[in-house]
């Protein structure tokens, strides 16, 4: 069965990726088998219609990295796949975070980018000094 985690949030991409930069990326699409080789992060693309002298052009850009699924799933490689995406698109800045919550009570963590590296951050519980 596996351990399920819910992931929300996103990493904005500046400047947005052009179609030429991401059209053949493994982060641009879904596998037929959701757990066979699929990346756990995906590019969110935006289409914009632009009028040109030759007619209407559709410009496609990728503006963010998001969790592969909006539903809880087995996110075993989230940090590694985020790092792969960062490394695949040099010259772009990624800002934001993923909020992660596992099935077990208290299993909370985040994924952030620190100095160009995807990092898992776990919360620290601190008791007040007067607690016995």
Task: Give an account of the 3D structure.
The structure is a single chain. The protein has 132 residues and is mainly beta. It has one domain. Helix content is 11%, strand content 46%. It contains two helices and six strands, in the order E-H-E-E-H-E-E-E. The chain has a six-stranded antiparallel β-sheet with strand order 2-3-1-4-5-6. A hairpin with a 5-residue loop joins strand 4 and strand 5. The protein is elongated and about 75 Å long. The relative contact order is 0.24. About 4% of the residues have low confidence.
Features:
single chain; 132 residues; mainly beta; six-stranded antiparallel beta sheet; 2 helices; 6 strands; 11% helix
Number of individual domains: 1
Stretches where pLDDT falls below 50 for ≥5 residues? 31-35
| Counted beta strands | 6
- The separation of the N and C termini measures 41 Å
Mean pLDDT figure: 90
Helix content: 10-25%
Structural class: mainly beta
Q: Main sheet: which strands, in order across?
A: 2-3-1-4-5-6
The description of the largest β-sheet is: 6 strands, antiparallel
Q: Give the strand content.
A: over 45%
**Computed CA radius of gyration, to the nearest angstrom:** 18 Å
Shape: elongated
Alpha plus pi helix count: 2
Series of H and E elements: EHEEHEEE
